[in-house]
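May I ask for a protein sequence together with how it folds?
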Amino acid sequence: MFRALGHRNYRLWAASDLVSSTGTWMQVLGLNWLVLESTGSATAVGLTILFQAVPMLVLGSWSGVLADRLPLRPLVLATQTLHLLLAAALAVIALAGATTTAVYAVAALTGLVSAFDGPPMGKLAAQVVGRADLGNALALGSVLNSTGRILGMSLGGVLAGLGGASLLFGVNAASFVAVIAAVVAIRPGTLHPMEVSTPRRSGMLAGLRYLRGESRLLVLFALGFVLSSIGRNYQVTMAAMSTGPLQAGAAGFGLLSTVFAVGTVGGGLFAARCRQLGMRVLIGAALVTSSLQLLSGFSPGLLPFAAVILPIAAGAVVIDTALGTRVQLDSAEDMRGRVLAAQATVSAAAGALGGPLVGWMSETFGPALALQLAGVVALMATVAAVAALVRIRDARRVPHPPREDADEPVPALA
């Protein structure tokens, strides 16, 4: 289950990931509270989230280009240092008396840095463990992120009462020191180098041409979009069910959030136990999770709903881990950064669309019916993906001449 921890470099990476994830969720809590306290507007909180998401939608592809052409460790060190400085700036703004404009500006800059952060981090993480243990590393990463979320939210609530939002931002700034130290301490000689793009295969257009020819990746992106947007936007539906049909109020929503968090940890551990995170695991988890989502709309009370939420949360992590593993292992190494950037863009678009859409469905049809409809759509999307993947597999059995852009890649330097 913990194969990836046998790599010294991954142990450094995992420890820093837990620290950084905890700090990040502290900042999420602190930022939402700061904006809500200073404006009294939930819309303002939503705008803060939007400002952080827009740069990924606009600039995500360019970050993949850099990850495929430049050394990864300097890129990661640069983005982590910028994150540190921006978190420290938020701490200063909170201490000085927050202005909405300043908070929005820092949020947008944080989103900009994050847009250029994901693909280099993803590629470097793959170099830390290599192909054989990549799925296990991604699964353990899901466990660490879930644990960091639980720790960040719980500790953040305590620290916010002691020192306010500025203390949370300061802790997050300090957490980036752990990542910087881990990247510096990584032994380059034990990394698993990847190929980098030749000039002919570099650039955003070359990446788009590559993706256009990789039908399997496009099907996975489409499936991931549906499952992430309408398939399991449970932060919206759990709140709607708690205040609506379940009549459980804030206490019920808190219980469901805790159950969901526990489920994500369980899903990460299950994925870590799988020797191979192949298409069967992905499709199986998608079918089970979508079916359970449909059934959750018929839950007669809080406890039955919580009992269904637990495996749904676990299945969501298995889906994300299997999808991330397949995207990494089934893409060319010299295109990996642009593929990861495309996946991040799809994920950001799913989050931006799915939240409002599921919220509208809950208000228009009622949360229970919204869950049932979303489950049906997710099931249909999964079945359609299976059919498309079968057609692609059959088509690939017919030999094709080599592509004109298949230049010989060159080894990468970490």
